[in-house]
C-alpha cells in the first residue's frame, strides 16, 4: 500500500508540474536593452552572425545583437518578443526581433537596431523618451519566426566562398523555433555525408567541396520545451556552377 501511495503521489506531482515545464519556454524573462547607432536605422550588415545584407533588412530591419543569447552562433536567426516595462511609454506587444549580431552592453541582453528599439514605444513622443534614456528595463521570450513572403528555407553561398575550392554557406529564412546545430554535404563518390564546420555565427564552410550539384542536410533542434532533434535534407539544392553571394531556394518548409 505504501509503495502504491508513493507512486500515485509521484504521478500527481508530475501531472501538476508538466504544464509549467512545457510552457516555461514561453514565460517572460526580465533583462535590459539598449540600441546601436545606424545611419538608416536598419541593422548592421557586418554583424557577427555573418548574414550580410540579410542581417540588415530581414524582418523589416527589426533586428538585434545579443550577448548570452548568441550561444557561440547557435542563437543566430532566433526570434524574440521583447517589450519594455514603463507603462506610460511602452506598448503592450513590444517588438518581435531577429538575432543577427553579437554585442555586449551595460548588463543588457539585447542591443537593438534603431527600428527595433523605436517599436517598443507606444507613441513618437514616448519613442523620444526611450531613446533619451539609452537603456530600458525589458522582458522577453522566444517566439516562432515568421518571414512574410518567404515560406521556404534559402541556402546562400557566403561571399567569402572561392569556387570550386572553398564553399561557405549561410541558411536563411528558417521559420519556427529551431536552432541549426550541424550542416553536412553529400559526397557522392564516397557515399557519405561530410560535416561542415561552423566558422562563426551562422556561417558554415567546407574545404574542397564535392563537384557537381550539392545536396545538403542540416540538423535542427526545436527551441520548444521538448527540444526535438531532426535532419532536413535538400537534394542538389546548390547547382554545380555555384557562385559566391548567390542564394538558392530549397523545397524545405518548416512549421
Walk me through this protein's architecture.
The protein is α+β, with helices and mostly antiparallel strands. The protein has helices spanning 2-23, 54-57, 114-118, 124-133; strands at residues 29-35, 63-66, 79-84, 95-102, 110-112, 136-143, 154-157, 166-172, 178-187, 192-195, 197-200, 203-207, 214-222, 229-238, 247-249. The strands form 3 sheets. It has a 6-stranded mixed barrel. A 5-stranded antiparallel β-sheet has the order 11-12-8-7-15, with no helix packed on it. The protein starts with a helix and ends in a 6-residue tail after the last strand. 36% of the residues are buried. Mean pLDDT is 90; it is low at 1-24.
Overview features:
255 residues, alpha+beta, 6-stranded mixed β-barrel, 5-stranded antiparallel beta sheet, 4 helices, elongated, disordered N terminus
Topology readout:
Blueprint: H1 2-23, E1 29-35, H2 54-57, E2 63-66, E3 79-84, E4 95-102, E5 110-112, H3 114-118, H4 124-133, E6 136-143, E7 154-157, E8 166-172, E9 178-187, E10 192-195, E11 197-200, E12 203-207, E13 214-222, E14 229-238, E15 247-249
Parallel strand pairs: 1-5, 2-4
Antiparallel strand pairs: 1-6, 2-5, 3-4, 3-6, 7-8, 7-15, 8-12, 9-10, 9-13, 11-12, 13-14
